[in-house]
Amino acid sequence: MFDLIVRNANLPDGRKGIDIAIKDGKIVTVEASIAAEAKEQIDATNRLASPPFIDPHFHMDATLSLGLPRMNVSGTLLEGIALWGELRPIVTKEEVVERALRYCDLAVTQGLLFIRSHVDTSDPKLVTVEALLEVKEKVKPYIDLQLVAFPQDGYYRAKDGVTSLTRALDMGVDIVGGIPHFERTMDEGRASVEALCRIAADRGLPVDMHCDETDDPMSRHVETLAAETIRFGLQGRVAGSHLTSMHSMDNYYVSKLIPLMAEAKINVIPNPLINIMLQGRHDTYPKRRGMTRVRELMDAGLNVSFGHDCVMDPWYSMGSGDMLEVGHMAIHVAQMAGIEDKKKIFDALTVNSARTLGLEGYGLEKGCNADLVVLQAVDTLEALRLKPNRLAVIKRGKVVARSAPRIGELFLDGRPSRIDGGVDYVPIQK
């Protein structure tokens, strides 16, 4: 007797009509037509069952704070940072916790069960750190939350920036963050990368840096990040987030940079929604997209995973917690519309992100943790196109969220009476 069997599921690797049997929070069997009973059964009706979505780059301390204390009128990154600087000193721990928990409710309904959030350490009171450490414990039954000590105002630039980040790590924050392009000078940015990588090596922690989030092609801190990664033996444990300056860099320099990043096994985290919203603000026309070179980085063998970054906060007034929305935008802005391209984009929302976060037991194979989501789509390509409802979200073998199928009713003579979420209207294959 199993605890749960998901029947008649299609899997991301192309297998169809597969049953997934679960017991004691683990996947026990993955095969067609399992002849067994279960306490609960879910008929996936030949829809996609996927490992849960992962957001490797988010700012949960600021989420859902849109309009506080005022709106970002220019819509720029710098005004967003300034706006957050106004809100941070007056925000309470209780407010941060409440907003974060509300966002986590939304995330679960979207099948988003793993999140890496940067938490601002610039204010020495560390209210945001205290709040998110509390949230991490509260959501542990349904969301695995990793926290990055993030010196938003600069590790060296902010008063008490160095000591505040150290205190945040001592309090239990998981990962060392940085923002070298926001230091006062390029040299201080380089020095911050070196210092933060040394801290990570000494403490045995991963690194995840906002790096070169600018249109300036001369912002090249990712080169330093790769070199220091190799120097301190941190290969595979370091992520460079955004890397938008690479969009504007000279091709010859990039031809040298990407192999260095590959040697360092840097994890790359573009954030398609916010990158194309905030970058290129000084351009008239042609206007740069501002997202890093996703295809070239993937082709070089680097692990690329996509982040949502922000939802309704000082930097981004949009957002839904839906990682498929992130992937949908990535397809467009990276111009990766081929079948194999789209499969890679879906991987960047799931298995690649699991690698970035260093997750164990992630996937849909025997022995993996029983974490999965059933979507109202037949395969990964359709999921990216439709951004469909999550019919069931399962965490450690327990259903934690459900959504009804999206069905449209028609009242037209001679036409079908219903449309199944847009699935019925795909090109007819002959």
TrEMBL record:
Q: Record's InterPro entries?
A: Amidohydro_3, Metal-dep_hydrolase_composite, Metal_Hydrolase, Metallo-hydrolase_Enzymes
One GO MF term attached to the UniProt entry: isoguanine deaminase activity
**GO biological process terms, semicolon-separated:** cytosine catabolic process
The record places domain Amidohydrolase at 42-401
Domain of life of the source: Bacteria
For this protein, what is the EC number?
A: 3.5.4.1
In its keyword annotation, does this UniProt entry include Nucleotide-binding?
no
Return any one Pfam family short name: Amidohydro_3
Q: Does the keyword Hydrolase apply?
A: yes
Q: Which UniProt keywords apply?
A: Hydrolase, Metal-binding, Plasmid
Give the NCBIfam families listed for this entry. Answer: PRK07572.1 (NF005748)
Protein's recorded name: Cytosine deaminase
The scientific name of the source species is: Rhizobium jaguaris
